[in-house]
Design brief:
It contains eleven helices and 18 strands. Strands 3-2-1-9-10 form a five-stranded mixed β-sheet, sandwiched between helices. Strands 13-12-11-17-18 form a five-stranded mixed β-sheet, sandwiched between helices. Helix content is 38%, strand content 27%. It folds into three domains: 105 residues, 2-Layer Sandwich (Nucleotidyltransferase, domain 5), CATH 3.30.420.40; 91 residues, ATPase, nucleotide binding domain (Nucleotidyltransferase, domain 5, 2-Layer Sandwich); 71 residues, Alpha-Beta Complex (Actin, Chain A, domain 4).
């Protein structure tokens, strides 16, 4: 009976995804909240609030309550969790659910306590934490309880977690606060510097998804996309065509930081585990790994096979749900 109520939550910087044991993925919305600036009342959550980013009147503000994988606004995060739990569990709150939430592998003790307290205050019976690389590996179908090495690279919205796993735990890992949101920011900076054109978060994200690439050799030459923004010189709206090659230049810095982190973890890996990784390759998860050419560039830089997991954006959420039934195996 209690097993049906077990909930896994991927409380991400960009997206909140909820996994219910009996139904699979039941909630998948952007981590954005719209509030009334004067009354403090929450107006919208998820995709509805995301549509408001950069387009709200003075009395409404659309914000992301999580930054770089950790809680930036506690009260709004708690409100999101309350909304999710009431929506998922509905009125059957006699038996409150056990909730497993993923956290970046580099989260501090204070950040971990903040997440746990937010979950308990939102109505959970128990709150458990799991590190993102472990959840991502479980969601990707990797048998991490075996005595062999597996390398996972989880590129999320706010953090990138790189880890080598064996016997149900993390052997060595590194977490950096460079991920999908930094790709958007890098594109905004590039367009502003090169064309004196100011664009918003949503436009940068559309550019990243449409023609963004980390490996221009594999992209169709001449691919471009029209974007609209405000000219910083004249102050008037303007349209510009941005090419795939330009996005590669814009994204070079954050992409290089991620690849350097992977190399650092490989350098720390024990020889026996390194041999396993050579045989199995690297598994990539998270929405950030969907950036065109990311896997090809990582493979070229490390000399290892790189595989993108099936449904990479859902791996962490699936893994948090699966982990509730494996707590005796996992090193938590």
């Amino acid at each position: 009976m209690f097993g049906i109520e077990d909930i896994g939550i991927d409380l991400g910087t960009a997206t909140v995804i909820v996994f219910l044991k009996s139904k699979g993925i039941v909630f998948n919305e952007p981590t954005v909240v719209a509030i009334d600036r004067y009354s403090g009342k929450m107006i919208a959550l998820g995709e509805e609030a995301r549509q408001m980013l950069g387009r709200t009147p003075g009395n409404i503000v659309a914000v992301r309550p999580l930054r770089s994988g950790v809680i930036a606004d506690y009260s709004m995060t708690e409100w999101i969790l309350q909304h999710i739990l009431h929506k998922v569990v509905k009125k059957h709150l006699l038996f409150r659910p056990r909730v497993m939430v993923c956290i970046p592998s580099g989260a501090t003790g204070v950040e971990q306590r903040a997440v746990k307290e937010a979950v308990i205050q939102s109505g959970a019976r128990q709150a458990h934490l799991i590190e993102e690389p472990v959840a991502a590996a479980l969601g990707a179908g990797i048998q991490i309880e075996e005595p062999s090495g597996h390398m996972i690279v989880d590129v999320g919205g706010g953090t990138t977690d790189v880890a080598v796993l064996s016997l149900g735990g993390i052997v060595c890992s590194r977490s950096i606060r460079v991920a999908g949101n930094n790709f958007d920011e890098a594109i905004i900076r590039f367009v502003r510097k090169k064309y004196n054109l100011m664009i918003g978060e949503r436009t940068a994200e559309e550019l990243k998804i449409g023609i963004g690439t980390a490996y221009p050799k594999a992209k169709e030459h001449g691919a471009s996309l029209l974007i609209r923004g405000r000219d910083l010189v004249s102050g008037l709206p303007e349209t510009r065509a941005i090419t795939a090659e330009e996005t590669a230049i814009a994204l070079q810095e954050p992409v290089t930081q991620i690849i350097d982190t992977v190399k650092e973890v490989l350098e720390q890996t024990a020889p026996e585990l390194a041999a396993d990784i050579i045989e199995r390759g690297i598994v990539m998860t998270g929405g950030g790994c969907l950036l065109h050419g990311m896997d090809l560039l990582l493979s070229e830089e490390t000399g290892l096979a790189v595989n993108v997991a099936e449904d990479p954006t859902l791996c962490v959420a699936r893994g948090t749900g699966i982990s509730l039934g494996m707590m005796n195996v996992l090193q938590t």
